[in-house]
Amino acid sequence: MASIPKTMSGILIEENGGVEALKWKTDIAVPELKDGEILVRNEYVGVNYIDTYFRTGLYKAPLPLITGKEAAGIIAAVHPSVTATFPALKEGAPVGYVADHAYAEYTAVPAEKAQALPEGVSTETAAASLLQGLTALTFVREAAGLARPGHPESQGKLGVSEGPWALVHAAAGGVGSLLVQLLVAHGARVIGTAGSAEKVEIAKANGAQWVVDSRNEDVVKRVKEITGGNGVDVIFDGVGKATFEGDLESIARKGTLVVFGNASGPVPPVDVLRLGAKNIKLMRPVLFGYIATQEERNSYTAELFELIQAGKVNLKIHDVYPLKDVARAHSDLEGRKTTGKVLLKV
Ligand code: NDP
């Protein structure tokens, strides 16, 4: 058994706040394993917008907090209670996970949230794909109800015969890049939005057939033009406050509005009577509700890795920052300077 130190480096949030709240520490106690847990020596940590919500306090967690929701690395220890149920989780095996407390050298992970990595999926790929990839995949299938490509029911719950119109905000971002690729693969006609000329090109490279520069063009007007006045059948909106009102205008009759993030701030309370004007379905899904069972988690993760290995989903890594420089990573993410995935190297 590899020797495990008593203390480790990591990022601690002692008080909520700006990026200065992310404190680099070198004397954090290495977690002791409880029933059902494995200890992972993290190699790569994925940065997600949700990490900024836990930093600022928009989402609450007890302090002091080691935040971070996904990472991949090598299993350093396994609690004896784990082995019978999860035989693939062996000491020394590479593993990825979507679970708490990833911004550190070591993380104690509930075994059911860890995935032994198949051959050909590196720890870097796993940390770059798990949370955002599972979000995009489950939202396309379960929130929008689009069936797997080639499936006889591929018209899905959107109720349109073929080629539903989809609008994806921040289509050059982490989740947005993956949503665009998956929607195109599911036969949708995809309009992306992106906040600069460079990002417009990235969103196009992701497969969006039309991309609107959200800082220089009127998104609602362009969506109406592109769809011949119809509007879009489904909207994926991780931007939130700044785009919600426009979404109500851009959506088609009987459309599905999937609001799933707060990059510009949370959407204020909504008067549901407004949905009646076009019989809009409004959703506010959270990934964890779609991967709550072991079966859901395993099957979606296996499919995601297959899509990546087959080259059907491409990952774009914006940059790999040292864990110590996580404040810069958060600044860049919140400052709309990143495209694709932001990673930390432990
Ligand atoms: P992104 O890489 O998409 O970064 C956010 C992007 O939002 C920016 O690059 C920017 O793109 C756009 N944006 C528009 N307005 C603002 C603003 N005022 N401030 C900051 N960014 C803005 O991040 P992620 O892929 O990590 O996450 C995207 C969204 O998805 C987040 O809201 C996140 O919380 C949500 N999410 C929700 C999940 C769930 O389960 N509900 C799971 C995973 C993510 P541009 O400049 O092109 O407009």
From TrEMBL:
InterPro entries: ADH-like_C, ADH-like_N, ER, GroES-like_sf, NAD(P)-bd_dom_sf, QOR-like. It comes from the Eukaryota. Residues 17-344 form the Enoyl reductase (ER) domain. GO terms for molecular function: mRNA 3'-UTR AU-rich region binding; NADPH binding; quinone reductase (NADPH) activity. Keywords: NADP, Oxidoreductase. The keyword NADP applies. The lineage of its organism: Eukaryota, Fungi, Dikarya, Ascomycota, Pezizomycotina. This is Probable quinone oxidoreductase. GO terms for cellular component: cytosol. SUPFAM superfamilies: GroES-like, NAD(P)-binding Rossmann-fold domains. The keyword NADP applies.
